[in-house]
Design brief:
single chain, 227 residues, mainly beta, Coagulation Factor XIII, Chain A, domain 1, 5-stranded mixed sheet, 2 helices, 28% strand, globular, binds 2-acetamido-2-deoxy-beta-D-glucopyranose, binds copper (II) ion
Length: 227
């Protein structure tokens, strides 16, 4: 009895430090948990992905369905968290255009481009800080010149508190489904595959953030396409 209690307690302790991104926020309003966001495999454990080559690294789910939310190019969206971000780290938001309907599309191929990032703040080695600390929502703008169509939107928070070795960084991931209207005729890029975008050895992924204090920080992934 006591040992079961101890195990349960440790599971609870474990999961309270982790987090998920269950809700898309459109025009300041949440679409609800796991409604426009494909329900991730960790929806109960909140556990991260640590293998950047795993199929889970794309959307952390084998589901390819959700309710597609209609959004306007140029508007601000957000991914709301299950709890405030607990770990020091950085964020990226990627999008990928579905060939047709995004519902049922798996996001495979060299189709992803970055639309936003929240990096670390350094000042030459005397301190490093992480603006995502304690945030309960990651906001980003749908690029104004993004062509109309249906897209996957993938958020990742890369927790760096134990990232000194390959496989130590913890990735918290969700994918939402959106239909973009009022868009333009931009050409998003550079395009990358996910998984494939990282190898785990990047200076912004395999990093000791404590000692020596990094003088600079290199955000993982391609440049942001702003349209
Ligand atoms: C994100 O947008 C919401 C409105 O949806 C706003 O209340 C919040 O302050 C924003 N958060 C950040 C970190 O900018
Ligand atoms: C985040 O919250 C913790 C606990 O309340 C606090 O100790 C810490 O200073 C906060 N960090 C930031 C950057 O606000
Ligand atoms: Cu955690």
């Amino acid at each position: 009895m006591k040992s079961i209690f101890t195990v349960l307690l440790s599971l609870v302790t474990l999961s309270t430090c982790h987090y998920t991104f269950p809700a898309l926020v459109v025009n300041g309003v949440s679409t609800g948990d796991w409604v426009s966001v494909r329900r991730t495999n960790n929806f109960q454990t909140n556990a991260p992905v640590t293998n950047v080559n795993s199929p889970d690294f794309r959307c952390y789910t084998s589901s390819t369905t959700a309710q597609t939310a209609t959004v306007t190019a140029g508007s601000q969206l957000g991914f709301r968290l299950s709890q405030a971000i607990y770990h020091a780290g950085v964020a990226n938001v990627y999008m990928a255009k579905a060939p047709g309907s995004v519902n049922g599309w798996d996001g495979s191929g060299q189709v992803w481009f970055k639309v936003a990032q929240v990096s670390a703040v350094t000042n030459g080695g005397s301190s490093i800080s992480f603006p995502t600390d304690n945030q309960s929502q990651i906001n980003f703008t749908v690029p104004r010149n993004l062509p109309d169509g249906e897209y996957l939107v993938r958020v990742e928070h890369i927790a760096l508190h134990s990232a000194s070795n390959v496989g130590g960084a913890q990735f918290y991931i969700s994918c939402a489904q959106v239909k973009v209207t009022n868009g333009g005729n931009g050409t998003p890029g550079p395009l990358v595959s996910i998984p494939g975008v990282y190898n785990g050895n990047e200076p912004g992924i395999r990093i000791n953030i404590y000692y020596p204090i990094p003088a600079t920080y290199s955000q993982p992934g391609p440049a942001v396409w702003t349209g």
